[in-house]
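Minutes, project huddle
Topic: does the predicted pose make sense with magnesium ion bound?
PN asked that the exact inputs be recorded in the minutes so nobody has to dig through chat later. Recorded below.
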Amino acid sequence: MNLLSVVVPCYNEEECVPLFYQELMKQEACFKEEGVDLEVIYVDDGSRDGTAREVKKLHEQDGRVRLVSFSRNFGKEAAMFAGLEKSKGDYVVLMDADLQDPPALLPQMYQALTKEGYDSIATRRVSRKGEPPIRSLFARCFYQLMRKISKTEIMDGARDYRLMTRQMVDAILSMREYNRFTKGIFGWVGFETKWMEYENVERAKGETKWSFWKLFLYSLEGITAFSTVPLMFASFMGVLFCILAFVLILFTIVRKLIFGDPVSGWPSLVCIIALVSGVQLFCLGILGQYLAKTYMEVKNRPIYVVKEEI
Ligand code: UDP
Ligand code: MG
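Predicted holo structure (tokens), as shared on screen:
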């Protein structure tokens, strides 16, 4: 018998935990036919509601349900990493608790993985219906920018919903970086991936844990983790301003020789100083971002802290 581990990061999802279990178990018969055992690992990411209690209830009914509880909220990235680390399956799938990753797709994904010889089956949503338009716009811009400045392939609309072989999971686990951007890590480790598309599904219960600001910071995480192009931007601006300065010097000398008027031009001077110092601070900021990330990596803190495990 093969074992399939289902990893579910949960943050304040007490309503979704039992719902998710019910929906998943509707697929159980399909897996029995294939000779596949299931284990469900709920990773409670420091929830402040009854998430852990709900999972324990499920565990009492069904021993295949496991719980990993964090000591505080470490974020979805940490929760996914912990789930992968605790999983024992020959195959592992990452799924959201809110049923936005439809379990009905799972048997089909498993078929593709085992019969067609892929290492991973990934999903992407082709629509973003039900999402605020401004968020979709920023998301699209982010993916376009990433495609330009990073060598790692990051798909637009890609979900974290992904079925992987043990080999790929081990590769992901070998990347123990603190600033995690899993969408990039999936691409970085490589392997043969098949993409499956589906229409966006709205969350079953509760509300999204990602505010616009949190998503914005997460996108910066993605950029600094998988591209160093912004660092090059500083050098590029430096060269550009050197050329500009050279032209200005020539212009000033020539003007002095022809018109003999060196004094006027206070406003232009102020503008130039303001512009150049602005650009300098901006570049310094970029440098600071990378330095901060390096600082956090060097500290080598654990990615998560477990409070309770069942
Ligand atoms: N999540 C988590 N830790 C967090 C935020 C979210 O484990 O700090 C989980 C959440 O419980 C859900 C999944 O990550 O299972 C996706 O979150 P959500 O549905 O809020 O995001 P959205 O689908 O709106 O992007
Ligand atoms: Mg969701």
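Observations noted during the meeting:
- The chain is about 50% helix and 15% strand.
- The chain has two domains: 2-131+154-209+303-309, 229-299.
No decisions taken; revisit at the next huddle.
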